[in-house]
Write a structure and sequence with these properties.
Length: 76
């Protein structure tokens, strides 16, 4: 969802030729949401789900998916 909103803001900024929306507010939106995820949502998930969430977080990237497993990387 966050990626969709990011692309939406970026597209709106380009369509209205708004330099401030493209280069300032879109990046500000991303930074605020990253801060909220790290400081508010992740501690709540750790408290509710415990070690299972910690293991999930260790194996899953936050934004950009990996198309290979850690086992494949270690073998090469």
């Amino acid at each position: 969802m966050l990626t969709g909103v990011f692309l939406f803001l970026f597209g709106i900024g380009f369509s209205f030729n708004s330099v401030s929306l493209v280069f300032f507010f879109t990046q500000l939106y991303v930074l605020i949401n990253m801060w909220e995820l790290k400081k508010i949502e992740e501690p709540e998930l750790i408290m509710r789900l415990g070690d299972e969430y910690i293991e999930y977080r260790r194996n899953t990237p936050m934004f950009i998916p990996r198309y290979w497993s850690k086992k494949e990387v270690n073998v090469k």
